[in-house]
Design brief:
It is found in: Membrane. With 256 residues, this protein is mainly alpha-helical. The chain is built from eight helices and no strands. The protein has one domain: Rhopdopsin 7-helix transmembrane proteins (Up-down Bundle). Helix content is 65%, strand content 0%. The chain starts with 27 loop residues before the first helix and ends in an 18-residue tail after the last helix.
Length: 256
């Protein structure tokens, strides 16, 4: 099997690592794995989304679960659509514009998912001054990340720098709001947030290992599935329903 650039594939499961300024060319098996590994998350995310909305006891919980559920489902859906498109068209070099913009949507969904993951905690938990600001700043960071992605996605000049900076931005956007944890009066359930965060960080290692480890990107996808599951369980078990120790006021009486 050979890649589209004429590079001989050493195996069915991994192609040669891309050079600087080049995009990695997954094997057909890797394309399938990339598509399936996030495709299996779509239906469960919709089911959990519906259930979390249905068990919300307050208006604010209800609206926050809509935000959380929409962007979690969007994460898996956009990723699956992009990789399915790559599977169908990449080897034939067809639909380059569609593939390009779906890739941007895939990356943009990550920023929105990160913001949506933090929002219930920063809103429903009593935070100190940094946490109150971060509730809004995390969405500003997400928008700035998307703007960066749109302007510098797959740029050929200094592409290694852009790709490295892209990963750094993801880690910063995901990590900086965690400082609000130390300002929360009630930290119940945060252990699952920490576990999920560690799973994501471990997955980033594989995110950068295309061409070194077979199915590296699919392994990254599995880490995202596990991390999202940990965070969803934390939200469901801790932030939903009535809590006499940490009552959530109705949305009509809360200062957003």
């Amino acid at each position: 099997m050979s890649g589209s650039c004429g590079i001989v594939n050493p195996s069915l499961y991994k192609n040669k690592r891309a050079g600087k300024g080049e995009a990695y060319e997954p094997t057909t098996y890797e394309h399938w794995a990339n598509t399936i590994s996030h495709g299996i998350g779509i239906v469960p995310s919709i089911i959990v989304f519906q259930h979390m909305v249905s068990v919300a006891h307050r208006d604010l919980q209800f609206y926050l679960m809509i935000i959380y559920g929409i962007f979690t489902t969007l994460l898996f859906s956009s990723s699956t659509c992009y990789h399915a498109c790559e599977l169908k068209y990449r080897q034939k070099r067809e639909q380059p514009q569609l593939r390009y913009y779906l890739h941007i949507c895939d990356r943009a969904a990550i920023y929105l998912f990160i913001a949506a993951s933090y929002t219930p905690w920063l809103t429903l938990r009593h935070c100190g001054y940094p946490g109150l600001n971060l509730k809004w700043m995390i969405w500003v960071f997400a928008v700035l990340g998307i703007i960066y992605q749109y302007n510098f996605h797959e740029k050929q000049v200094l592409s290694f720098l852009y790709k490295t900076l892209e990963t750094v931005i993801y880690v910063l956007v995901a990590g900086c709001p965690s400082v609000a944890i130390f300002t929360m009066n009630d930290r119940t359930g945060l252990e699952w947030m920490i576990v999920g965060g560690l799973v994501y960080i471990t997955g980033v290692i594989f995110f950068k290992m295309d061409g070194i480890i077979p199915f590296a990107h699919a392994i990254w996808h599995i880490h995202v599935l596990i991390g999202a599951s940990c965070h969803t369980y934390a939200v469901y078990s801790t932030l939903l329903g009535p809590d006499p120790n940490n009552p959530v006021p109705d949305i009509s009486r809360i200062d957003l």
